[in-house]
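Task 17 of the worksheet. Students: predict the tertiary structure of the chain below and write it out as structure tokens. Keep your answer in the requested format; marks are given for formatting as well as content.
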Amino acid sequence: MNTKERGDLTEVIAVAELKRYGYTVSTPVGETARYDLLLDTGAEILRIQCKTGWIRDEECLVFKACSTEYNASGHHANRSYEGEVDAFLVRNPDEDGLFFVPVSDAPSREMTLRLNGGAHPQQNAASEYRLDERLPF
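Model answer:
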């Protein structure tokens, strides 16, 4: 499965899970929005960027908290989502678990969620971001 297919799968799983909890979910038309989904909580509309994480060292879920953009000459730049997205929905591809991470909690490039045990001072406990624990309403 290529990266586009993995991203598409993450989005479909995220929509299905949010619908299971009774939320209204909308998607933008085209590929120009910085967010993948609009989540209507009944009180507010949140811009959600879906991310597929990867496992590092068998105990951490890692995801990119920025996008990488390339210019015509092949040079790239990392671009933050701050101010353009309200939260990330991160999928653990090994377990299909979802994590709701406010953009304000994420560093500008990459975030690590410790899956097992207590959080290292430089890492966040994944349990604090589980979708079923962090649902907005």
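Marker's comment: The chain has a mean pLDDT of 90. The helical segments are 3-20, 131-134.
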